[in-house]
Specification:
The complex is a heterodimer of chains A (245) and B (245). Chain A has nine helices and ten strands. Chain A is α/β, with parallel strands linked by helices and 245 residues long. The chains are: A alpha/beta (245), B mainly alpha (245).
Chain lengths: 245, 245
């Protein structure tokens, strides 16, 4: 489904991704974790080409993301993305947030887009808020609308870039619930997060990145959490720190 | 009391005198006011169209030719005094550029004022765009919008709301700056005032009347812009705009 081969990226002279290779199969949930500055967010943004890469290859469902000739808008419309700061369109109502890309990108009719959008809104439990504006919703609600917006496009994969790290602790759960539901339905997902509980519960694999943009570990969830003593020293240090409290 | 009003009438009755060709000074003044409003309105339309385009182009990264062109436009039209620009349109461009000689003076004056103001509006657009969180652009691209669609549906609608206050000043400025058109014989308010003062020696009354009409026009522009600001305010955001003035 997704394959990254030896991807490297630099900002000027600073290398932010170092020879990263990842393969994600259909229906897999892959969690990416690591300290800040390790390039997790950059890695996930290279998949839908929000961040260009200088070396390597990225393939989504047989389409070459790294190829200059690729129709990026078309490709991105098939890849759902959820951001740390939600990034709903604040000037549009919840319903319009859900329908605008369906109409302008996929060419769906208004009633068709509305129907699909409201289905997804129902699914994230916010159907009563369809006429509100993003600024009138809580952070957790905004993030759930953002998930519904991505789902309305019927994506083949969902990318989550720290979806809960800007939320009040009380609201983390409602967003994770939606994500767990998605995972259990077989959605292919790549999730950058520090929520180890989520990783433990639903992920198939865990990727650990370290400063400099290197992938240190790429193992099954059971390996990752089951045998901490087998992990690399850097990973153990990280896990000990974040699992301490 | 009676004598007071008689006195007022004595001062102002010349406005209803025939100036010699069947038109009263009052009718002339109204027509001149119409020219002022027309010059200001047409210039504003030109300024908005070019200001939006140039301001948007200034924020596009990675295309050296485009950004140099846009930056040159802004510097060119903002660094030359408006009166000089007006004369250049009338005496240089209309002489040197083929076909321009037949263009009416009204159109040339609107071009001069419109292009001058477009440089200022372009800078406001640029500031507004740069004030938006970078994530909004990514969110637009991520749902599959092209660069153009991202500007059209995500960035510019938010930018306009941000820049309404400086845009109000600009719209009021254009009304006041339209007075330079007298220098190229557009029969607007200042042109009327100068000629009427010469013919009737009623300088005080004439300039008071012109001042009043400018003030009324600028106030009307201000009210219209404030109405637009309230109409376009986003629920849940910009509470200061909802609170009234």
């Amino acid at each position: 489904m997704i394959e990254m081969k030896s991807v490297s990226k630099w900002y000027g002279a600073t290398q932010v991704l170092n020879d990263c290779s990842v393969k994600i199969n259909k229906g897999e949930v892959v969690v990416v974790c690591g300290p800040s500055g390790s390039g997790k967010s950059t890695l996930i943004k290279t998949i839908n080409a929000l961040e260009p890469i200088q070396k390597g290859e990225i393939w989504i469902d047989g389409v070459a993301v790294h190829d200059k000739a690729t129709d990026l808008p078309k490709l991105r419309s098939r890849v759902g993305m959820v951001f740390q700061h939600f990034e709903l369109f604040p000037h549009l109502s919840v319903t319009d947030n859900l329908t605008i890309a369906q109409m302008k990108v996929l060419g769906r009719r208004k009633d068709e887009a509305r129907k699909r959008g409201l289905q997804m809104l129902e699914r994230v439990g916010l159907i009563d808020h369809q006429n509100k504006f993003p600024g009138q919703l809580s952070g957790g609600q905004q993030q759930r609308v953002a998930i519904a917006r991505a789902l309305s496009m019927d994506p083949i994969i969902m990318l989550f870039d720290e979806p809960t790290s800007a939320l009040d602790p009380e609201m983390v759960g409602e967003v994770l619930d939606v994500m767990v539901g998605l995972a259990s339905e077989g959605m292919t997902m790549m999730v950058v997060t520090h929520e180890m509980g989520f990783a433990r519960k639903v992920s198939n694999r865990v990727i650990f990145m370290d400063v400099g943009g290197r992938i240190l570990e790429d193992t099954t969830k059971d390996e990752f959490f089951g045998k901490i003593e087998d992990r690399q020293p850097r990973t153990r240090e990280f896990l000990n720190k974040i699992l301490q409290y | 009391m009676m004598a007071y009003w008689q006195n007022v009438w004595d001062h102002w009755q010349f406005l209803w005198d025939d100036r010699g060709d069947g038109v009263t000074y009052f009718q002339w003044m109204m027509s001149a006011w119409g020219y002022t409003v027309a010059v200001a309105f047409c210039s504003l339309v030109i300024a908005l169209v070019f200001g939006i385009i140039i301001g948007t182009l200034r924020t596009i990264t990675g295309h050296r030719i485009i950004s140099t062109f846009a930056a040159t436009w802004v510097e060119l039209f903002r660094n030359i005094p408006i009166l000089v620009q007006l004369f250049i349109w009338f005496f240089v461009i209309s002489e040197l550029v083929p076909g321009m000689r037949s263009v009416p003076g009204f159109v040339l004056a609107c071009c001069a004022l419109g292009f001058f103001t477009s440089a200022r509006i372009a800078e406001q657009i640029r500031a507004g765009i740069q004030a938006l969180p970078a994530g909004q652009r990514n969110a637009g691209l991520a749902v599959g919008f092209t660069q153009l669609q991202t500007y059209r549906y995500v960035i510019l609608p938010q930018t306009f709301r941000i820049i309404i206050p400086p845009l109000t000043s600009e719209a009021m400025n254009i009304v006041k700056n339209s007075s330079v058109a007298f220098a190229v014989s557009i029969p607007e308010l200042i042109s009327f005032a100068m000629q009427t003062q010469e013919e009737t020696s009623r300088g005080v009354e004439v300039y008071l009347a012109a001042t009043l009409l400018y003030a009324i026009t600028a106030l009307a522009v201000n009210r219209v812009m404030s109405l637009i600001e309230r109409r376009t305010s986003i629920p849940g955001l910009t509470p200061q705009a909802q609170g009234g003035h």
